């Protein structure tokens, strides 16, 4: 099979893939919505399509991060953005951990665990964006 080199055909192919992705996503949401109405929230989450849906959203978000970093102004310092993002993720995790531990149903350990999980889940994209920005800055300095 030959690789397509005509940019017009590549663009048409990408549009076709986008339409296919939209149809799949609408189908998955429809099936999950039906499960939500008939089986409730727990029944919907038991469906294997829930995992596929969540995985596709995460992959799409990471791929769009790469595009958004390419679109950014190259004059920004990656370290400054990293520390600012790290501060915001830490602040959000601490506040949610405290609010969780204040509730009657949860203890301090629950708040600590939820805050820690949120911190780790927020830290992964922050590190990924920092890596993309430093890589882009290194590529631009080589030019």
Could you explain how this protein is built, in words?
- With 143 residues, this protein is mainly α.
- It has 2 domains: 1-64; 72-143.
- It starts with 6 loop residues before the first helix and ends with a helix.
- The chain has helices at residues 7-46, 48-71, 78-102, 108-142.
- Helices cover 87% and strands 0% of the residues.
Describe, in short, the structure shown.
The protein is mostly helical and 143 residues long. 87% of the residues lie in helices and 0% in strands. The chain starts with 6 loop residues before the first helix and ends with a helix.
Q: Number of folding domains? A: 2
Strand content: under 5%
Number of helices: 4
Main sheet specs: none
Distance between the termini: 34 Å
Order of helices and strands: HHHH
What class would the helix/strand composition place it in?
Answer: mainly alpha
Report the count of strand segments.
0
Estimate the helix proportion, in percent. over 70%
Outline, from the CA principal axes?
Answer: flat
Protein name: Branched-chain amino acid ABC transporter substrate-binding protein
Keywords: Membrane, Transmembrane, Transmembrane helix
């Amino acid at each position: 099979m030959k690789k397509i080199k005509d940019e017009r055909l590549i663009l048409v192919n990408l549009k076709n893939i986008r339409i296919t992705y939209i149809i799949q996503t609408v189908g998955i949401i429809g099936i999950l919505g039906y499960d939500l109405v008939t089986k409730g929230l727990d029944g919907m989450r038991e469906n294997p399509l829930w995992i596929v849906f969540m995985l596709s959203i995460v992959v799409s978000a990471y791929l769009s991060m790469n595009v958004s970093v390419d679109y950014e102004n190259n004059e920004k310092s990656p370290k400054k953005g990293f520390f600012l993002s790290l501060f915001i993720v830490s602040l959000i995790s601490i506040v949610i951990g405290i609010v969780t531990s204040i509730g009657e149903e949860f203890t301090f350990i629950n708040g600590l665990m939820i805050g820690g999980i949120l911190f780790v889940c927020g830290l992964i994209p922050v590190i990924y964006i920092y890596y993309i920005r430093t890589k882009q800055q290194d590529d631009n300095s080589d030019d």
